[in-house]
Specification:
Strand order of the largest sheet: 1-2
CATH topology of one domain: Alpha-Beta Plaits
Number of helices: 5
Distance between the termini: 134 Å
Number of strands: 2
Radius of gyration: 44 Å
Largest sheet: 2 strands, antiparallel
CATH class of one domain: Alpha Beta
Helix content: 40-55%
Amino acid sequence: CVKDSLSRLFACCGSVQSVDICEKPGSGEKKEKLTSKFFNCKTVTGFQVAYVVFRKPAGVQAAKALSREGPLLISTESHPVKTGISKWINSYAASVVDREELKAEVDTYMQEYDKKIAEEEAKAAKEEGVPDEEGWVKVTRKGRKPGLPRTEAANLQVLEKEKQKRARKELLNFYAWQHRETKREHIAQLRKKFEEDKQRIALMRAQRKFRPY
């Protein structure tokens, strides 16, 4: 039961201006119409509510009298409604995304987004430093040095981290070399002292005299 089916069903009552299908009854205010065919498309299951708007008030009165004339058929020989396997096959075929159409929609969206950002930046640059009616001056983040793009800022951050990592590694290597040199000097001093002690002991033994009394 889609908009076309309902519009055709109630056409016998009068000219149909529009048909809106909602998940549940509401205030009747129209929601923002989705412009995307591929994004923000929510599939609604179960019962729904339809608002049929006629071009003339007489269509409403004729629609109220339909219940006395018997049931209305949505699926007819001239306009059959697909159900079962045929409906599933049709739904699957409709779910296959056309790459070219998707690319065109994404490109259009990005162009509009870039245009909007450019307009906002131009407006901010025009209003920068200009006081308002109460004398307040709006301060923006954009100063003499404009901010770098995200990609460039990310690259600089990665380079800075690599630089710090390399400096830390060089410092650790220096400490390791200094520790080895200190240890080597300490061993050399121990050996020198050991040789001096050996010579001193040998000299003391040579000078020792036998003194029984």
